[in-house]
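Hey, quick one: can you model this chain's 3D structure?
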Amino acid sequence: MFIDEINFNIHAGDGGRGAATFRTEKHVPRGGPDGGDGGRGGSVWLETDANISTLLDFRPGKNYRADRGSDGMGKQQFGKDGKDLVLKVPPGTQAFDAITGQLLADLAGHPMKFEIARGGRGGKGNIHFVSSVQQAPKFAELGEPGETFAVRLELKLLADVGLVGYPNVGKSTLLSVVSAARPKIADYPFTTLVPNLGVVALDHSRSFVIADVPGLIENASEGAGLGIQFLKHLERTRLLIHMIDISEYSGREPKDDYAVIRAELANFSADLAALPEIIVLSRADLVFDEAYKQELLEHYQTISPETLIISAPTRMGLDELMKLVWSKLEALPKQLSAATGTVRITTRDKDNDDPRQFAINYDDKTRTYVVTGHGIERRVSMTDMSNDFMVRRLQRSMERWGLFKKLKEAGAQDGDNIRIRHLEFEYVDDDLLDEPLASSNDDDLDEPV
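Sure thing. Here's the predicted structure for all 449 residues.
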C-alpha cells in the first residue's frame, strides 16, 4: 500500500523534577541542601531512510512519545536524560503543523535528521537556590514540559523525470521497458493508482529516476478522475515527459490533448507547469498512416522542437528518447532549491529564552489577557505553585521582567484575568495597595546560580 500523507500527534518528553533534599549523613551536622537536577526529556526526531519509500509505518491519530527525564535525587545526583524518539521517514518528506499548516521541515535528501519536537529541560535542584539569607531552600523547580502538537507528514517522491498525460497513454509501459520497475499495465483507464518509480541506467556512469503518476483528465484540478492529488510527487522533478496517445483507440483528438493537460498542470502549480518538457507521441505501432504520423509530429514540433514519436512495446524511438532526456538533465541544476536542506518556518521560537521577550493579547471571548513568550512560559511551567517560596520567586521575577508594568500599559485593571500557559491569576494594581506585593529586598528569591 502506498501512503503519502498522514496525521498523528507527537510528544517530546517532559524534563525531570529537581530534588529538594538535604544531607543526612551521620556526623555531618547541618549538611545543607544537596538536591540534584532533573534530567532533560527526550526529543522527537525525523530522520530520512533511503530504504523507505512510503509513510505506511505510521498510524493515523497515534501518539508518538519520547521518554521523560528522570527526577533529581539527593547527594547531588542528577536525573537521567530521557531517550530520544527517532521516526524514520522516506527522503522527500515534508512535516507540517497540522493545526496551523505551517511548514516545519523539508527533508528532501538523505541523510537528513531534524528535531521536530524538543524535550523539556530538567528542573533545578535546591542546591541552586542557596543564598546568603536563604541557606536551606526547601524548594526546587519542576521539569519543563516537552513540546507537543499535531503533525502532518506529506511525501513528495524524489525523481529526475516525471511522466504526465491522459490515462492509458503508455506511461507505465514506457517505465517498464526502460527500467526495472514493474507497474500494473492493462488496457483500461486509471490502471495506475499510485506513483511508481524506475531507475534508467544508460551505462555504469549514467542513470536517472523516472516517476509515473496516475493519469490526468480534463477538470482534474476540480476533482475529476483521480484529481491531482499525486501531482505533488512531480514537483521535485527537473524534467517532464508529456505523453500523447496518437492511436485511434484513445477516442480523443491527439492535437487537443496537450492543451488540456497543460491547463491542468497550470491550475495545480505554476512552478510545475514551468518545468522543461519533452513531448512524446506514443503508441505509434498502432498507427499505420505514415502521413498522419508525420502531420502530428510537425504539429507538435511547432510547439516544441523536442518532440519524438515512440512505441514502447517495439522500443521504437526509445534510445533516442533516453539520450535526449540525459542531455537535458545534464544541462539542468542537480537539485531544486526546495531540496537543498532542512528548513524551519515556525512561530515556536525555542531558541529565544529571554523572559523579557513576551507578547500580551486580549481574548474577548474569555475576557482574559493572554501572555505568550517561550522564556516566560517556560519559567511558569517549571514553578511549583503549591510552594509559597516558588510562587513568591516567580512573582518577583515577573515584576523584574516588566510584566505588570506592560499589563497596565495594555489596559489591564485591578481584578482582570491574566493567563500564562496553564497559570491563571487576577491582576492586582500595586498603586491601589498600601504595600507592594513583591518587595525588592527578597534576595532569597533570586534566580538560580
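One thing worth noting: Confidence is low (pLDDT under 50) at residues 183-192, 336-343, 439-446.
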